[in-house]
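Structure, all two chains, one model.
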Amino acid sequence: MARGNNMGRGPYEKSSIVEDTGLAPGKEVEERFDIFYPVTEKGADGKQVAEEREMDVTVELWYKPFGTMDGAVLWNEWEETISLDKKSKPTTYRSGNPK
Amino acid sequence: MKQFKVIGVAALALLLSATMAFAIGAGVGRDGTIVGTKGKAKTVQELIDMYDSTGCIDCHEDAHDDWAASPHARSIYGTGRAAATMITAMKNGFMSWEYSGVKSTKDIKVEHWMGCMKCHLPQLADATDEVAVELADTLNEWYANAKKALKNPDDKKAIAIRDKHQKTLTSLNINCLVCHNRMAITHKWTDGYPQHDTVYGFNDGEHEDETFTKMKRSLIMDESIFCGQCHGMGPNLELENPTQCATAYGSYMWAYRAEGGQESCQECHMEKSGLGHKILSYSDETMQKMAIDFKVESYVSQWLDGSTLKPKAVVKVKMVNRSGHSIPDG
């Protein structure tokens, strides 16, 4: 409310910005995700092996007008099968990067 | 004796006109506005009628149809959620504040609503406090009966009351006359007050209408400040108890124009998007594409940390907001 560090969703619950996590105009924002493949121990020596060689990753950008999935709108979606081996499955694009 | 009577009547008349001018407020031409001419609305229906724009449809059907599909056409009702939020703002806001003077809906005055209605229904300022009370009662009755109808879809009485109030609430909106008359001039002491017989746009001249017989150029109709009157700068510090809703115009000025951005609200939301008077934003596919550069890149690595294998996929998402304001905003 600009009289402390509280800020609510309703207009009557705020009169300042305590923190802004929105996307500012013209400014590049990068989000990095490190997703680990599962490993298992194999053989007598307990050597670690990644048996799952491929991972299907989907990145979705949602606009949430009320902060929840209620009324949320999907703005962008990217989908790819990422392989630990050099040759991966063909990339699929529903939207996002140009083909 | 006769002479005394004449002087007495003249003095009384002078006193009355001076009182009315004072009540209307400062500024030459203020008494020629719609509310200055008609007087304040005393009922919700009078307020709806005061800014009735149905006369515009015959000649401006396309613009009207676009507008009808816009959020401006249901500025206090929305999808029902906006109306419910007005009730929350009333109950959790000014009805719960110790010094607001509101204990029950009968105590509500126009100024109590302005935290919401400054933008959602700016013409409420042209109504009496009785309308503020009626609006609160309408919202409450609509909500109570909407809940009843949801619980029991066969409750015809509840459905009828809900629909009646929904019609009233959707008739209170930001329509042709609100934008092309009431809000069309920001600098009223410089450019004059919007007059009751004039529509404001891009031309000067005669206007083929019985009520609005003149057209005048609005100096702000294609400027961002026009939208900034409502899609504002953040806290409404002019209110007795400040609220904060939209911050788009503040962000536009201080984070977009300040960095060299040149486009106006109207250029993106009406012209380049082809949306015209729909003036949509986050829900529209064209606006979504215009708003964000979205790029994703990925690669894999197998990090061997001593005897521990850590294979991983790295996904980098890069986004650039190409709009003229922070996202999200309104």
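The longest strand of chain A covers residues 73-83.
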